[in-house]
């Protein structure tokens, strides 16, 4: 099971402060516990570390994700196709054609029950986008990209 495959992700999160790492990993466990047969796609980009869950190995089938900004250290819990899911409480941020998210500052304030409802809808939406059932794979962690940019330690500032 992929939940235990953390080597790459831990390496990518290392430059961030401990509290940010803990929040991101707590959110990761939250998703894995609910959707153990999906696939974690990891992106170590120049501006963020992002990891999301997909019913295939394709980004376009991602239903939820976590992103940690390199400079802001903001933690997003988002929905790749968030513009296509209901949000009756209107807590999701974002005005673009696709991605919606919430900022997670403290895990104590994370709206678990509401997010579970949104995840259920997002998961069904993601499955509906799969054209060929042979694309569906289960329980993998896949590192999709690693940034060439050098990472700065969390306690160092740019000059």
Describe the structure.
With 159 residues, this protein is an alpha+beta fold. Helices cover 26% and strands 23% of the residues. The chain has a six-stranded mixed β-sheet. A hairpin with a 5-residue loop joins strand 3 (62-69) and strand 4.
List the helices and strands and how they pair.
Elements: H1 7-13, H2 18-34, E1 39-44, E2 48-54, E3 62-69, E4 75-79, E5 100-103, H3 112-129, E6 141-146
Parallel strand pairs: 1-6
Antiparallel strand pairs: 1-2, 2-3, 3-4, 4-5
Produce a short descriptive summary.
By secondary structure, this protein is an alpha+beta fold. It is 26% helix and 23% strand.
Radius of gyration, in angstroms, nearest whole number: 15 Å
Q: Number of helical runs?
A: 3
* Structural class estimated from helices and strands: alpha+beta
Shape: globular
Quick one: biggest sheet?
A: 6 strands, mixed
Which band does the percent of strand residues land in? 15-25%
- Work out the number of β strands: 6
Helical percent range?
A: 25-40%
Average residue pLDDT: 88
First and last CA, distance: 43 Å
Widest sheet: strand order? Answer: 5-4-3-2-1-6
Low-confidence stretches: 153-159
| H-E order | HHEEEEEHE
